[in-house]
Amino acid sequence: MGPVIELIAGSYEQIAFGYRVSTGEEEWTATADFTHHAHTASVSAVATSERYIATGSRDETIQIYDMKKRVEHGALLHHDGTISCLEFYGSSHLLSGGQDGLLCVWSTRNWECLKSIRAHKGQVTSLSVHPSGKLALTVGTDKTLRTWNLIDGRSAFIKNIKQNAVIVKWSPEGDKYVVVIGDKVDVYDLETATLTSTIINPKRISSIKFLTNSILAIAGDDETVRLCDINTQKVLCEFEAHETRVKSVDSFTVDDFCVLVTASNDGFIKMWKLNLESLEPPVLLGKVNTTARLTCLAVWKPTTLQEPPPEVKTEPTTSHEQILIFNDGLGTVGLTACSGAERVLEHVPAGEEEKLSPSTSKQCKPFDNE
């Protein structure tokens, strides 16, 4: 049995998509696993961990999905404004940033908000957690880059970058970090906190992904994806991935090769096989047309092998409520998808769906930090 892999994408149409990947010898396929209308506005961010998927939206909520139990927990309600960024640290914590300038740290054990930090005077546009879990970086519309001590929730360092950065990200080894401003990527060294190099992209950058500690995949307002060396600033490889601009990129490894996943405004999600040693032009493994305008993308690939998830279909009930049906061969398990509710799946007889009662989502008080 091959690894369990799902491609998770958000869209302007308020829908979160899940596609199960089947790995073939030559061609890979991505089969629709679920489509869920959990939000009442466009989906702006998505993140995955070993067990959970989180989606953020312009509707000010974070929806949590338990992929192990095939259960939707419901909404985390704390931010006031768009959820602009989400990132899991391991399997224990979720971090969120929003239009309200807050950086929130959530426990995945009980979904309690452990810290709520007033990180920026404007919107938090991006965040990244250090591999150690002790530090986090944020950038915002107040034109600052901030380093946070996650142990005590205090600001450890503030840098005035004089421009609005849209992305910040640690390298896999945590010795460097990159900041994206417009069409350029600034590379910083952690030990000296100095700018070591700058990579210029032909178009405004929309998404980046570290493939190794030195190779960075860059996508922007065109159809091309470029692989760059952050030490030499050289473009190692570039290829036309889509017919329109590439909105988001992610990656995962299978056996001895890297798979780069790209999502575009043209509605397609594509999987590309990369050889990071030879850096030859990538080979298209497979693609799927979501027919939606995609906004964000993440890969869910648990490290423990599992049986493939049960087949999923959706059956709409009303314009405000939807029942998600998982057919596991023994019967069905159903849940209501009404906004802001906590949902629990229960087995019911085959052919019968049961709506479950919502319960109150958790909230927390802000932790002030000027």
Automatic annotation (TrEMBL):
Q: Where are the WD repeats?
A: 36-68, 76-116, 117-158
> Record's GO cellular component, any one?
nucleolus
What Gene Ontology biological process does one annotation of this record name? ribosome biogenesis
SMART domains per UniProt: WD40 (SM00320)
**InterPro entries registered for this protein in UniProt:** PAK1-Kinase_Regulator, WD40/YVTN_repeat-like_dom_sf, WD40_repeat_CS, WD40_repeat_dom_sf, WD40_rpt
Compartment(s) of residence = Nucleus, Nucleolus
Q: Which UniProt keywords apply?
A: Nucleus, Repeat, Ribosome biogenesis, Signal transduction inhibitor, WD repeat
Query: Per the annotation, which location comes first and is thus the protein's main one?
Result: nucleus
Residue ranges for the region (Disordered) are 350-370
Task performed by this protein? Negatively regulates the PAK1 kinase. PAK1 is a member of the PAK kinase family, which has been shown to play a positive role in the regulation of signaling pathways involving MAPK8 and RELA. PAK1 exists as an inactive homodimer, which is activated by binding of small GTPases such as CDC42 to an N-terminal regulatory domain. PAK1IP1 also binds to the N-terminus of PAK1, and inhibits the specific activation of PAK1 by CDC42. May be involved in ribosomal large subunit assembly.
Could you identify this protein by its name?
PAK1 interacting protein 1
